[in-house]
Structure to design on (264 residues):
């Protein structure tokens, strides 16, 4: 809504920059009040790497939501991000259980049906869809960020979440300056950015705590429920149409999330 109101797709960078800044201030204050017990090199290096992924991903995610259709973009990126940790898991000591394999297969079917907008898309059309392509990039990046965060220790507390956002603060203003020509964000997105910063900062603390204590595949699967809310909002407030096959695809998506959660 913020990007559509500004009328400029480039404002996604400013929106991401403001949200990241607000989130970093909130989490930084929390870390000062409750500093980590122990900090290892891995507790710094892996969250910084995750933060660099997120810095690129955040404006792309907002841009994808603005371009729409949200009913395609949100579920595809959500299901992609739960498939990535499940596939990478065996290489970092997190082997796939039978239910996790079922979850990956359900996610693939869901992506195909959700991206069809009323029909089963041909492979060529699916690959050429800008919404699907961008959603896969965003989902892959978020999934990789989740995998990186699992390499930090729970004793690091909220420091990994702070480092993720601080990494974004280093990169995003540079991107904004190169792309827009100024460090100042569009005034139309500042208010939305503050709200996003508060909500996403809180979500970042909670999700990071979960990643540090659990399986990347399972935690990411549960977080992936969030795009479903975006689909409902797009249908209710943005006037986007939902089709029967997309509802079936959503059911497969729910099955994928349930399979991952039960496997954990």
């Amino acid at each position: 809504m913020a990007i559509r109101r500004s009328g400029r797709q480039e404002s996604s960078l400013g929106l991401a920059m403001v949200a990241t800044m607000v989130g970093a201030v909130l989490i930084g204050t929390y870390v000062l009040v409750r500093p980590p017990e122990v900090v290892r090199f891995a507790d710094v290096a892996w969250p910084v790497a995750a933060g660099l992924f997120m810095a690129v991903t955040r404006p792309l995610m907002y841009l994808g939501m603005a371009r729409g259709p949200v009913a395609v973009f949100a579920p595809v990126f959500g299901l992609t991000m739960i498939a990535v940790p499940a596939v990478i898991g065996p290489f970092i000591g997190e082997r796939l259980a039978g239910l996790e394999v079922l979850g990956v297969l359900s996610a693939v079917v869901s992506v195909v049906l959700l991206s069809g907008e009323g029909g089963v898309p041909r492979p060529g059309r699916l690959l050429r869809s800008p919404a699907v392509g961008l959603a896969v990039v965003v989902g892959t990046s978020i999934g990789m960020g989740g995998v990186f965060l699992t390499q930090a220790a729970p004793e690091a507390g909220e420091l990994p979440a702070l480092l993720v956002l601080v990494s974004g603060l280093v990169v995003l203003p540079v991107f904004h300056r190169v792309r827009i020509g100024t460090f100042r964000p569009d005034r139309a997105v500042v208010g939305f950015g503050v709200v996003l910063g508060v909500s996403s900062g809180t979500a970042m603390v909670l999700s990071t705590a979960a990643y540090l204590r659990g399986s990347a595949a399972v935690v990411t699967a549960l977080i992936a429920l969030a795009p479903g809310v975006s689909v409902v909002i797009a249908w209710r407030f943005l006037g986007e149409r939902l089709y029967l096959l997309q509802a079936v695809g959503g059911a497969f998506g729910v099955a994928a999330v349930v399979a991952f959660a039960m496997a954990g």
